Structures are given as structure tokens and as C-alpha cells.
Amino acid sequence: MYTIFLVEDHKLMAEALVRALQRKGDFKVAEVAETAEEALEHLPNLQADLALVDVGLPHTGGIELVSRIRAQRPNLPCLMISGRSSSQYAKRSLEAGARGYVLKDDIQEVMYGIRRVLEGDIYLSKQLDE
User: Fold this and answer.
1) What is the pLDDT along the chain (130 residues), one digit of tens a residue?
2) HEC states along 38-93?
């Protein structure tokens, strides 16, 4: 059973992701944060195997959040989720320390990306623009 820390500002998307992750059987969602600031508050006591972070967070964006997570918890892998298929966002995410970038409109690919990152790989969504 893997534990996921979800950072997603859209409540309906967060609820859908939580349901999908838990339905798969081997994922449990430890915490859900709606902003980077809330995520950073959870970080010191967080027990999670992976952080699933939305790129488009209000105020402090997801890419900046990943950089801050990596500084505080270097062993916590981060996987970016986004509705944006621009390879520029993926490149910036990887530069910030993310281990992958997946489009959140394909839940099966999100699951696959999570598994790949948990196995130590870097994973990029197949649908990214060049």
C-alpha cells in the first residue's frame, strides 16, 4: 500500500483523484492540500511515499512548491499533474525536482505515472506537445 499526498486546488478534481486512487487498492491518500501554503504546513509531519502536485495552484504555483518540497524532503518524490500539455511546463517541473509530469484528464496514465515514479523512474505523459 502506497501513501499519496495530493495537492490539488480544484475540489471536484481532488475528490475524483482520491476516489480513483483508493479504488485501485494499493494507494491511500494521506492528506489533501488545496494550496502550496497548506501543503507546506503538512510537510513536517507528513507520512507519504509520493506527492502528487497540480501545476496550476493559486498564489505559489505547483512548480515552485515542488522546489520547496525537494529542499525540505529530498527523499519524497513528486509527480506533477496538469491539464496543460505544454512540454515547457514539464521541462520546468523536472528542473524544479519533479520526477514526472502527467495529464490529469487520463486517470489510467496518472496511475501508471505514479507507479513508475515510485519505482524510481522519471515519467512524462505521452500526450505532451513537443
Assistant:
1) 999 999 999 999 999 999 999 987 679 999 999 999 999 999 999 999 999 999 999 999 999 999 999 999 999 999 999 998 888 999 999 999 999 999 998 889 999 999 999 999 999 998 886 5
2) HHHHHHHHCCCCEEEEECCCCCCCHHHHHHHHHHHCCCCCEEEEECCCCHHHHHHH
